[in-house]
Automatic annotation (TrEMBL):
Pfam families tied to this protein: DUF846
Record key words, sorted: Membrane, Transmembrane, Transmembrane helix
Annotated TM spans: 26-46, 93-114, 120-139
The organism's place on the tree of life at top rank: Eukaryota
GO biological process: protein secretion; vesicle-mediated transport
Subcellular location: Membrane
Residue ranges, annotated region (Disordered): 163-184
Family under the similarity heading: Belongs to the TVP23 family.
Gene expressing this chain: Tvp23a
Membrane topology category: Multi-pass membrane protein
One Gene Ontology cellular component: Golgi membrane
Biased composition (Basic and acidic residues): 169-184
InterPro entries per UniProt: TVP23-like
Protein name: Golgi apparatus membrane protein TVP23 homolog
Length: 184
């Protein structure tokens, strides 16, 4: 059981939404409200991506850049043989929070757009982006982007050794070509 992880999974999300709704009541400073909400959204993104996703549902995702500078997205799911009732409840809370909050931020987007409060539009777009990125990553993990760490690392080392082998083969080919031209 992970009650602390479950609490923080919802705390930052709900705090960002409540702060967005009632910030004008407590502060006249747009910048203070903007920064506070953006920090809450950032804390939420980090905690969901790096902590609560691993603990509550056994999923994680990240971006890996290889030696060639190519970006590779890695989606991983931990295989759990039996799920206890408490873990199942935590997983349900995780998925509900992950799905409902982007919908709420989308509603905020349209209400901000139609009420012409355009100064809040950038913040709402940031909220939608951060929430949707986590949702996309975890859905991808859940539906089949599963790769184990051993397969990822073995593939990484195989591809890291491949350019060396190709370079060696190319240099041997050039040596054979030079040998043939020298014997003419």
């Amino acid at each position: 059981r992970h009650p602390l992880a479950t609490f923080f999974h919802l705390f930052f999300r709900v705090s960002a939404i409540i702060t967005y709704l009632f910030c004008d009541w407590f502060s006249n400073s747009f910048v203070a409200c903007f920064v506070t909400i953006l920090l809450l959204l950032s804390f939420d993104f980090w905690s969901v991506k790096n902590v609560t996703g691993r603990l509550l549902v056994g999923l994680r995702w990240w971006n890996q850049i290889d030696e060639d500078g190519k970006s590779h997205w890695v989606f991983e799911a931990k295989r759990v043989p039996t799920i206890a009732a408490s873990t199942e409840a935590e997983a349900r809370i995780f998925w509900l929070g992950l799905i409902i909050c982007p919908v709420i931020w989308t509603v905020f987007f349209f209400s901000t757009l139609f009420s012409l409060k355009l100064k809040w539009l950038a913040l709402v777009i940031a909220g939608i982006s951060l929430q949707t990125a986590n949702l996309y990553g975890y859905i991808h993990c859940k539906l089949g982007g599963q790769k184990s760490i051993s397969r990822v690392t073995s593939r990484f080392f195989v591809t890291a050794g491949a350019p060396k082998r190709q370079t060696r083969r190319i240099s041997e080919d050039r040596t054979e070509e030079h040998g043939k031209t020298g014997t003419r």
